[in-house]
Design a protein that fits this description.
This protein has 239 residues and is α+β, with helices and mostly antiparallel strands. The protein has helices at residues 7-13, 19-27, 120-127, 147-155, 192-199, 231-237; strands spanning 4-6, 31-33, 36-37, 44-46, 52-54, 57-58, 66-71, 101-102, 111-117, 135-142, 169-174, 178-185, 204-212, 215-216, 226-228. The strands form 3 sheets. Strands 7, 8, 9, 10, 11, 12, 13, 14 and 15 form a 9-stranded mixed β-sheet that branches. Strands 3-2-5-6 form a 4-stranded antiparallel β-sheet, with no helix packed on it. The structure holds uracil (URA). Residues 106-107, 110, 191-194, 207 line the site of uracil (URA).
Length: 239
């Protein structure tokens, strides 16, 4: 059986207003549960079973939301920051009440795929070091990338603090004075991709995440755009 939830909480989670506004509306008799007017906000409903109607609109209740953001540079991967713009500021108003947070972090200057959700369990699974969820990045570096660098990545790279990374896959897109490559890593150390290339003498000048797990960034999403994941995409994302 599905969980029971307070009527005002269900309506607030579904975007029908603040708890205060909802309490007032309920008192005014604007809400029915299974066809019967309920004026007490503390009334408990079965979220998956009972039919709740607010001002004639059937309430589609859901607990969790999963958004794909094409993160632009210039935003920090946090929910609040005293000085800098956060990725939460890019979330459309209709999703704000869900209290979303980013799954992991991209650097302020990194672009690309960032998942925003309020599903703490999924976030934990995606970030758990033992799960080794792959993350793929498109990268531009100063300097010529060669197959030898690919071999170094495959063996694991020793970072500036002496840590040896897990094997990573490097696929060269273009080799020149500024080279382009795709790299897949299976862990998430601080500034990991930038530090891996730095260890090889190749400073990163541009970084964009293009996949997480089996989920790829929707390239039709403009930087700063957000959309909900489809059910199929959510399945691809789950480790
Ligand atoms: N590695 C980095 O160096 N930066 C990121 O934002 C993500 C991975």
């Amino acid at each position: 059986m599905k969980d029971k939830i307070r009527l005002d909480k269900l309506l607030a989670n579904s975007g029908f207003g603040t708890r205060k506004e909802i309490k007032k509306a309920v008192r005014e008799g604007r809400v029915t549960v299974n066809g019967i007017t309920v004026t007490d906000s503390s009334f408990h409903v079965h979220s998956g079973q009972d039919t709740v109607v607010f001002d004639g609109v059937v309430v589609e209740y859901r607990e969790f939301v999963y958004l794909m953001l094409n993160k632009p540079a210039g935003y920090v991967s946090a929910t609040v920051d005293p000085k800098q713009a956060t990725v939460i500021e890019l979330v459309p108003e209709r999703f704000r009440h869900f209290e979303l947070f980013p799954v992991g972090r991209l650097d302020k200057d990194t672009e690309g795929l960032l998942i925003l959700t309020n599903d703490g369990k999924l976030a934990h699974e995606l970030l758990a070091p033992k799960k080794h969820v792959p993350k793929t990045y498109f990268v531009k570096v100063n300097g010529r990338v060669s197959p030898g660098h690919g071999k170094r990545f495959a063996e694991g790279v020793i970072l500036d603090d002496g840590y040896k990374t897990m094997p990573a896959r490097l696929s060269i897109v273009h080799s020149g004075d500024v080279s382009e490559a795709e790299v897949t890593i299976h862990e998430g150390k601080y500034h990991q991709v930038k530090r891996m290339f730095a260890a090889l003498g190749l400073p990163v000048v541009y970084l964009k995440r293009i996949a997480m797990g089996n989920l790829s960034l929707d390239e039709s999403l403009a930087p700063g755009d957000v959309r909900e994941l489809s059910t199929g995409e959510l399945t691809l994302l789950r480790p």
